[in-house]
Amino acid sequence: MNEGIFKVGFVVEGDRDKEFVEGLAPRVLPSGSRVHVVRVGGKAALPWSFSTVAHLVARGYGHVMVLADADTDVPSEIRQYQRRLESNLRRFGLDREARICLAVPMLEAWLLARYVDDPERDPDPKHTLERCLDGAPPVIGALAKELPLDIARRRSKSFDTFVQTLEEFASPHARPARKRRTS
Amino acid sequence: MADILFDAKGSVDLHATLRALQQHKPSVASCKAQLRQRWDVLQAPPQDLAPSALRAWKAARGYELESILLALAAVEGLQPSPPFRRKGEQIDGLLVVDHRPLLLEAKWQEAAVTAAEVFAFQGKLRGKLVGTLGLFVSVGSFSEDAPAAVAYGKEINVLLADCDDVGLALDPKHALKAVVRVKLRQASLTGDVYYPFKTWLDEETA
């Protein structure tokens, strides 16, 4: 059952989020970690992400992150959305294994942090990022691999939270969730 | 062996295709490839269309989405019935998966399908035999509240499918009946009416 391998699961909205996680997570997690990403198909599907979290936990992923775009930079709205997603996990007893992480206002702002000082305030991070890339469509995975982590953490609070959460997952003091009996 | 038949404009001729598939065994791989090719062509409108022609093309594309899905159902042996449209109430298309009849609604529009539109489709199911389900396919996706609005506190009788589900159903490695089966199972297990087939594929490789 691969007991020795450190496994972290990610539940994300779509393809670009998957590319981002697969590009960036290995840079933060211990070498040799197993990262698996499940795309739930968009914001409309996120309220049911608890079943995917449960599936990953049952498959031995001791830590799971649900990563979504906040689609707002208003702190009260961000907190409300985060609480709503967390309450779903709590309802099914999954809040110990899983953490919710929201990109403010969206994931592209994290990649934009390389180029601008306050990416979370940008009203259209996708277009601003394209402009910074001289109009070329962003290759999310490649940008994630090259993102300067210290600069991005300093410029984007939500990215800092994301990296901090991964570091906590990987901390030697973090205990993986107890195995759940499936029978 | 029967193939998919197309009309003079290059669109799937559903009635002719269904007749041909009833008379001759389909070459599944070849038919799926033809439907997939047509699906790929429909992703982007032709260049330089006048606004009125573009509107007409997009409207025709919505109907052809239904034809593609029902032709695919025929290729897979899912006993489809084509829609019947006249003035007055329309008789919708239908397919049968594992003895479960599913009424089909297919929309190709830029705006996300709202909860109200899904409710309107659910209204059609009320006049049908108990146990008849609905399959609502939207290439333009669904509004954020649509799945929850359909599921919470209500009898669940509609499954939602999106662009990715259609693409995977047309993929030679997968099938429409597999997509529907996965959605049926998840809706029964958790009440999730939207569960994308892509999610199931990702979960299965964990």
> What is the topology, as strand order, of the major beta sheet of chain B?
1-2-3-4
N-to-C series of helices and strands of chain A? EHEHEHEHHHHH
Major sheet strand order of chain A: 2-1-3-4
Oligomer: heterodimer
Structural class of chain B: alpha/beta
Mean pLDDT of chain B: 91
What is the helix fraction of residues of chain B, given as a range? Answer: 40-55%
**Element-level helix/strand string of chain B:** HHHEEHEHEHHH
Report the strand count of chain A: 4
Q: Given the structure, what is the number of helices of chain A?
A: 8
Q: Report Rg of chain A.
A: 16 Å
What percent strand of chain A? 5-15%
Task: Report helical residue fraction of chain A.
Answer: 40-55%
Structural class of chain A: alpha/beta
Molecular structure report:
The complex is a heterodimer of chains A (about 180) and B (about 210). Chain A has about 180 residues and is an alpha/beta fold. Chain A is about 45% helix and about 15% strand. Chain A has eight helices and four strands. A four-stranded parallel sheet of chain A has the order 2-1-3-4, with helices on both faces. In chain A, helix 1 packs parallel to helix 6 and helix 7 packs across helix 8. The two termini of chain A are about 15 Å apart. In chain A, about 40% of the residues are buried. The C terminus of chain A is likely disordered. With about 210 residues, chain B is an alpha/beta fold. Chain B contains eight helices and four strands. In chain B, helix 2 runs antiparallel to helix 3 and helix 6 crosses helix 7. Chain B is globular, with a radius of gyration of 17 Å. The N and C termini of chain B lie far apart (about 40 Å). Chains A and B meet through strand 2 and helix 2 of A and helix 5, helix 7 and helix 8 of B.
